Amino acid sequence: MTARAREVIQAADLVIGNGLYLDQVAPLLAGKEVIRSSMGKEVDRARQAVELACSRAVAVVSGGDPGVYGMASIVLEVLDRSGLDVPVEVVPGVTAATAAASRLGAPLSGDFVVISLSDLLTPWEEIERRLGLAFSMGVPVVLYNPRSRGRQDHLAVALGIAAEHLPPETPVGFVKDAYRVGEAITVTTLAEAPARIGEADMHSTIVIGGIGSRIWRKGKDAKGIITPRGYERKYLY
Amino acid sequence: MTARAREVIQAADLVIGNGLYLDQVAPLLAGKEVIRSSMGKEVDRARQAVELACSRAVAVVSGGDPGVYGMASIVLEVLDRSGLDVPVEVVPGVTAATAAASRLGAPLSGDFVVISLSDLLTPWEEIERRLGLAFSMGVPVVLYNPRSRGRQDHLAVALGIAAEHLPPETPVGFVKDAYRVGEAITVTTLAEAPARIGEADMHSTIVIGGIGSRIWRKGKDAKGIITPRGYERKYLY
Prior knowledge:
Two copies of one chain form a homodimer.
Chain A (H helix, E strand, L loop, with lengths): L2 H9 L2 E5 H6 L8 E5 L4 H11 L5 E4 L10 H11 L13 H9 E2 L5 E5 L7 H14 L3 E4 L9 H12 L5 E6 L7 E6 L14 E5 L5 E5 L3 E5 L11
Parallel strand pairs in A: 1-2, 1-3, 4-11, 5-6
Antiparallel strand pairs in A: 6-9, 7-8, 7-9, 10-11
């Protein structure tokens, strides 16, 4: 968490969020009014936050960075349509792409693409089209929301599209609950990844390497992923 | 800055980094040995950090997230080739893409692409190819290193490629030195952006909206960018 996120929560009269994220900041919530919301209630939560912010200091909590698949855009949309003149600040955070990357080593390092496999708000055909273009860029691709009870096969389809554009030895990292209780990291290859899909869930972030990404042996037992930035073409080291 | 980044710097005996980034953490450096390096010396800096880390606690400082166009990958590469058994931790941070986005409002919100316009380590033809694929995805694209003394025209070319795929009213945000002294924000459109290129420098991050991104009037005078996530197709608000 950034120092600014902590300050903003501490200065708030009222904190609204999904219970999962509120639990992670529980020590900061003492003495505050807290409204626990649930998945799928984002529009109601945003509306409530904007209404309450007319008279009180309200903090809306998201996991990772609120601007990336988080609450920032819906809060700003609701505020904009309301016509209310309420000051608002979006506090950036560490998004799952770079949190997961740091646990794997340095798989992103340069250009990369972020795509969610959730088709709740984007049609699946459009997601498939984006995946094809993203993998043909040859840069690492980070998949958010790779799997949920309602969507068992999205990750398998995405890995299949990746395999049309990238070699079978391309490294793939699964990072579940990065920096949270129950963190689990799997490093495999594009060829082997379909057999490991069971290890991903809705809290996982998947990093599929690009051209040049390679598996890196971290100490004796662990593996990670490095995507060289290209220094090796210019320097000896 | 995250709490973990602060802890790691505080626990280090020796801190190595580009002078620009060391200055930003000056209050944390009292009583520590500090090695100031300069732009273009990344390989030497990584090599020095790995050697010194055999006997001391060394922190290598990057701006933003060290895993994204930062020092993490070159440090891990040098460490890997050295064969030394030195424990290493990559501490994630807030990368310029989401820092800039938060100052603009919520322009990313869903899928997005990150591309650097620096051709120091990637051939320019390859960057152009990636830009074409990225803009044809129709999602927001964040440009790092948009301009430097040696590269005056890269941003103009990138905006031209964007204009082949996106409508002229597509919002474009220039964010210079997000959250730093001298911060400056410009919100314009793809049609008008070429005339504003002089406002970008090597410390700027450029956010080019996707299909659906729109300019948002922040209060009386300021403008921002929102990319709706798609709730408007499912809910009334």
